[in-house]
Specification:
Elements lengths: L2 E9 L3 E8 L4 E7 L8 H14 L6 E5 L4 E5 L4 E2 H5 L2 H6 L2 H20 L2 E2 L9 E7 L6 E7 L6 E2 L7 H11 L4 H10 L4
Antiparallel strand pairs: 1-2, 2-3, 3-5, 4-5, 6-8, 7-10, 8-9
Helix pairs in contact: 5-6
Amino acid sequence: MQFKKITQLAKGWSSYIWLVRGEDGKEYALKEVREKSPRKNLAEREGEMGLLANKVGVGPRVVEVNYEKNFVVREFVNGKNFLNWISSEEFDKSVTPQELYEFIKELYRALLALDSISLSHNQLEGGKNILVEEKVDALSKKRKFVPVIIDFEKASVKENNHTRNIGQIESMFFYNPHGMIAKKIRAKLSLTL
């Protein structure tokens, strides 16, 4: 499929992320290696790890992996970065404890699914690789915040993988006594250490 770049969404150390439009008229996210990046196997790493994650229902669906031009195309997720979401006034004022609980529960489901195939993301600390997509049920009109794990470029698969994905976020979410994220989650859910 051919893709037309619409706008740059992000610029990382080794790659650019673009909002693109496919021949089918749909919007996608395209990740391509930066010219000066020493990482020349982006399509191989990001594409293969993303496809593995997709097999257990995790991450945006990989649409195309182009090894020749070194890019990966995924479905576009119109979500907020987790860190920006939890730091927002919207989170403080309108996200309910039940919505936060359901978000965390769904995130843990995704992390356990990755663990079940020994796929360790390796970059979940800080929450920058977790998007928060707001969805509204058409019938009930009930709002739901859905976690979407992105950026599998540094993920790894090991037979006896002892790095658990949940461990990568537990401290950040609950146990760091001085961390902003843990403080906000504990306050919203009325938890104490």
